[in-house]
Amino acid sequence: MVDRRSYLKLTGGALTAGIAGGVIALVARNEGGGGGTATFEERDVEYDAHDDPSDVYRVWTGYPERFAFEDGAAYTGATALRCDIPAGDSDGSNAMVWFPDGGYAQPRALYQRAMISLSEDWTMEETDVCRFWCAGLNTEAGVQGSGSRGRPHGDDGWSSMFAVTDREIDDEAAYNLAAYSYHMDQEGISGEFEVVGAPVPVGKWFQFETLVRMNTVSDGEANPDGEVRCWLNGTPVYERTDFRWTTTEDQAIEYGGPLVRYGGDETAPADLSIYYDDHELRGNGAIEDRRGSAPYVEDPSRMDDYDGRITVATGDAETSYRVYVDGYVVHSEWSNVDGHTTSPNETVEIALADDTEGYATADAVAAPESADGYLYDGSVVAVDADPELAELWVDGQELDPEAVPSRPGE
Q1: Residue 195 pairs with which residues in a beta bridge?
Q2: pLDDT tens digits along 121-166
């Protein structure tokens, strides 16, 4: 069962816990730096066209050989990027786009989207943390953006990273998302750690999106308006708009992409792997064109990876509905399943945490004589619709919509 603590509506205060030992030691580089001249707009990283991760990323620190391409494990195409963490170890490595290496000036805003999957045997001890993603990072200006070196001063590094953790969740099939940031107002020496409270599934691909905007600077002072946003399967799960990272326009976003470190002081309890595919990056003016509101739609070919499926079908009127799931739910589509053809519904909104009911929910407005499809783990506990659904199918079995509870506990 997914633990339904609501994710934090972050306005500066958050649950914080120091992580001893810092992250992978990031070495400041002076070559390149922020001195590029081109403006970064967009890039799609194509794994299939390359033989080695170093062809598309700067792979450095930790154990670079733990990043490799793997055929047959991709979300799309033929090749996925895999990072291994052997049992008893902590480091993976960093495999990130390094903007100065392409002759770019460091962008002041960066949107990224990727498909990511924790290995099917992924396991963590209680309170463990594993960083897996860098939304933005600067080491060219200094080393204060990582490694438990203390609070950044505005001209010597910063970072915004995301992690999975076993904190505040009681679900063997999922782990909690967490944000980990080095910024000028952090209290501890090892960055600010915030449990987001959005369940990340084990052994399934999930769509992960991040957006970073640098804070503005006035007369050499950092304004508290730096932004970090995050979406999980199209659902907004993290938003914070008060970061202070920099006191100079020269320090912006140097890196973005896969970054893997298990721990703090703790080490992986088993051999673990993280997979990446379909990495897209958009900078500065290209961001708004890419960040749409359409929901993530799971490929129906992965139906067997889930416990079951749901089909809701409307009658001759537009219908608003909510599906309650004690577990995990994603939008999907299929043809000729139980006589229905489902297609993506752009009104679908999936909540991974609910403040009052304690369940994952899928809300939508469906057109007359239409059908929407979902895949889920756990159990379907209630379906509320106005007007009543014409048909409701769960795992291939037709249910009487009027006999299904409209609220959990009924």
Answers
A1: 178
A2: 999 998 999 999 999 999 999 887 887 788 899 999 999 999 999 9
Burial of 91 (0-12, 13-18, 19+ CB in 10 A): buried
CB 131 within 8 A of CB 94: no
pLDDT at 30: 33
Max distance between CA atoms of the chain, in angstroms, equals 68
Q: Both ends of the chain: CA-CA distance in Å?
A: 19
Q: What percentage of the chain has pLDDT greater than the value 70?
A: 89
CA distance 228 to 237: 11
Q: ∠ at Cα 110 (105, 114), nearest 5°? A: 125
For residue 162, what are the β-bridge partners? 133, 179
* Token pair recorded at residue 83: 């990072």
Residue type, 120: E
Residue 179's alpha-carbon distances to 208, 269, 342, in angstroms, are 13, 22, 35
Nearest Cα residue to 347 out of 364, 331, 330, 361 = 364
Residue type, 205: W
Task: Please give the pLDDT value at position 170.
Answer: 74
Which residue from 145, 142, 118, 122 is spatially nearest to 132, judged by alpha carbons?
118
3-state SS, residue 48? helix
Cβ neighbourhood burial of 281 (10 Å; 0-12, 13-18, 19+): buried
Reported as a pLDDT band with limits 50, 70 and 90, residue 356 is low
